[in-house]
Amino acid sequence: MIPFLVLIVQQFYLNLDCVALLTYEQPLESSVGYLLKDSQREVVADTVNAMILSTNPNVKESKHCLHSYLERLLRQLTACCLER
């Protein structure tokens, strides 16, 4: 249970850092500028995607906001292809 709680706290702070990128005139020089590096691109995209999906009023459980339907389908197809 504790590792799950740590993950939730880390995700919360990552969400705040991603939103903070919008507040700086020069985000590269800010304390959250590390998020603009190529190595962080996918993490930031996933975080922003999850925040956008979480605004959908039709979603009842927050765990469904982590991945879009298209991404879930692609993951399932990839897993099926790898099993062959």
Structure, described:
The protein is an all-alpha fold and 84 residues long. It has one domain (2-83). The chain has helices at 2-20, 41-53, 69-83. Helix 1 packs across helix 2 (41-53).
**Percentage of residues assigned to helices:** 55-70%
Point out poorly predicted stretches: none
Mean pLDDT reading: 80
Distance between the termini: 35 Å
Keywords: Signal
Signal peptide: 1-20
What's this, in brief?
This protein has 84 residues and is an all-alpha fold. The protein is built from three helices and no strands. The protein has helices at residues 2-20, 41-53, 69-83.
Task: List the main descriptive attributes of the protein structure presented here.
84 residues, mainly alpha, globular
Topology:
Elements: H1 2-20, H2 41-53, H3 69-83
Helix pairs in contact: 1-2
